[in-house]
């Protein structure tokens, strides 16, 4: 075997990779927050008995889940500016903004389905009981159903956020320098793909493991109310 | 229901295994074909980043361009068969190193760093160098005017290397030069630094973009070379001899006229 692991390349790459990691973390955390909010509203819209709203939500979910995230990023960063040129809503593309928008709306669609499943899994009796106590639909949702639904949704939500972290590597195509792009750039100058990309993968692993540890912690904290 | 589920699982397993078996099967046939090919001339796999008009680009589903036709002419002179394949610019040199391509031609500038990894052919094209492109009306006269501005480049190109020297410039690196040009046209960045013939061609093909080349900023001329794996002296000698023949018999000038003099 002719291959010899080159530690120098790893040492050389670390500063740049860490800078990229900072961007990846920023990008993912902002998109997670916005995506969760979007997901909650879309899920409630989807469950609404008002047909047009429900239909709109379903269409949103279909489109965002049914098209590749890469295509969505390209449309927002390259397509929308051309479309909106000269109009009031002109979008002069900024890579970070395009990335956050694309990741948030994409994640929002998946989160919506996660919340919907969580909400629908709650016993019908809960809604009936809270109505019997005199709460209206919104009060029942806010104080009884959603808290329980949220607890059930935590594992799949954690899944989605780990997926989002990894998907954020697609911002490569719009010139945003995240962890993956930094790795690719270094490879363009140093030509040692194995050492460089393995290091990149390792950093992603640390990030995703942190997310899953956090999710475990959340689950444990919320489980304390389960002792009946 | 349980029986149906079991049946479903078993059939998926069988389907999966049969795909694997088919996969293995075709590898064997490929191997025997290769052995047959070794008796005849094996087609050389040529890597190129085909988003770089007029040197290499896609037209009607085929890869064509100055580089492509040049290498095809060289191959014809030397009795070699070539097969072009499109790949990411940054991946070309690693692909040579692993042997997944035999030769690259991609308007790649001969540099010392690159020459450490691969063997370059003789220079086949001389470019006046990099060009700085901006949106019409953006005031830039010298390189220093770009300090602190957003500069778009293609990843791992000489333009990228040169742009890194601009003080405080915010570099946005794109997978291809057209991506950078598009971002400039959209107003997302302030300038692009890339090979002059390529940006000139892009502007020619996209007259509504409102982009101009800053003539007052000049860079050192660059030489393009083809490349093969470090130790493939046999192939590089053939390429160099073919190049010399193509230059001598007028085919080179013919191609040059076709692509650069209208």
Shape of chain B: globular
Strand content bin of chain A: under 5%
Largest sheet entry of chain A: none
Identify the overall geometry of chain A. flat
Tell me the strand percentage band of chain B. Answer: 15-25%
Largest sheet of chain B: 5 strands, mixed
The counted number of beta strands of chain B is 14
Quick one: how many beta strands of chain A? 0
What percentage of residues of chain B falls in helices of 4 or more residues?
40-55%
> Would you identify the regions of chain A where 5 or more consecutive residues have pLDDT less than 50?
none
Query: Which regions of chain B are unreliable across 5 or more consecutive residues at pLDDT < 50?
Result: 27-40
Distance between the termini of chain A: 61 Å
Relative helix content of chain A: over 70%
Oligomer: heterodimer
User: Could you give the order of the helices and strands of chain A?
Assistant: HHHHHHHH
Task: List the total number of helices of chain A.
Answer: 8
């Amino acid at each position: 075997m002719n291959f010899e692991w080159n530690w120098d390349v790893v040492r050389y790459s670390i500063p740049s990779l860490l800078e990229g990691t900072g961007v990846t973390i920023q990008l993912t955390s902002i998109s997670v927050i916005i995506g969760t909010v979007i997901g909650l509203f879309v899920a409630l819209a989807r469950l609404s008995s008002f047909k047009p709203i429900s239909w709109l939500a379903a269409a949103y979910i279909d489109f965002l889940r049914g098209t590749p995230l890469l295509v969505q990023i390209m449309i927002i960063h390259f397509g929308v500016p051309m479309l909106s040129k000269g109009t009031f809503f002109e979008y002069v593309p900024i890579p970070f903004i395009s990335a956050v928008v694309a990741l948030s709306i994409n994640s929002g669609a998946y989160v919506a389905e996660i919340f919907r499943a969580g909400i629908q899994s709650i016993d019908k009796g809960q809604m009936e009981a809270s109505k019997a106590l005199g709460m209206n639909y919104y009060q029942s949702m806010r104080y009884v159903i959603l808290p329980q639904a949220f607890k059930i949704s935590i594992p799949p939500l954690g899944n989605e956020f780990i997926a989002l972290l990894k998907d954020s590597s697609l911002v490569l195509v719009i010139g945003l320098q995240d962890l993956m792009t930094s790795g690719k750039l270094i490879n363009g100058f140093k030509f040692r793909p194995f050492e460089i990309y393995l290091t990149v993968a390792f950093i992603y692993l640390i990030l995703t493991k942190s997310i899953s540890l956090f999710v475990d912690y959340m689950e444990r904290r919320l489980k304390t109310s389960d002792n009946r | 229901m349980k029986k149906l589920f079991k049946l479903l699982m078993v059939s998926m397993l069988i389907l999966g295994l049969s795909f694997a078996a088919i996969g293995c099967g075709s590898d064997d046939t490929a191997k025997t074909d290769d052995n047959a090919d070794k008796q005849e001339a094996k087609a050389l796999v040529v890597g190129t980043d085909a988003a770089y008009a007029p040197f290499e680009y896609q037209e009607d589903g085929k890869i064509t361009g100055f580089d492509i036709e040049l290498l095809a002419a060289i191959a014809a002179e030397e009795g070699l068969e070539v097969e072009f394949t499109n790949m990411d610019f940054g991946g070309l040199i690693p692909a040579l190193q692993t042997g997944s391509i035999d030769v690259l031609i991609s308007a790649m500038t001969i540099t010392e760093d690159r020459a450490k990894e691969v063997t370059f052919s003789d220079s086949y094209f001389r470019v006046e160098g990099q060009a700085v492109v901006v949106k019409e009306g953006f005031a830039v006269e010298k390189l220093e005017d770009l300090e602190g501005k957003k500069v778009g480049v293609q990843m791992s190109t000489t333009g990228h290397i040169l742009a890194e020297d601009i003080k405080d410039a915010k570099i946005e690196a794109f997978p291809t030069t057209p991506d950078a040009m598009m971002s400039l046209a959209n107003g997302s960045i302030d300038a692009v630094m890339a090979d002059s013939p390529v940006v000139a061609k892009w502007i020619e093909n996209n007259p509504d973009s409102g982009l101009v080349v800053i003539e007052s900023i000049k860079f050192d001329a660059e030489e393009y070379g083809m490349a093969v794996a470090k130790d493939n002296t046999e192939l590089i000698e053939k390429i160099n001899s073919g190049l010399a023949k193509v230059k001598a018999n007028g085919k080179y000038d013919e191609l040059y006229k076709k692509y650069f003099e209208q």
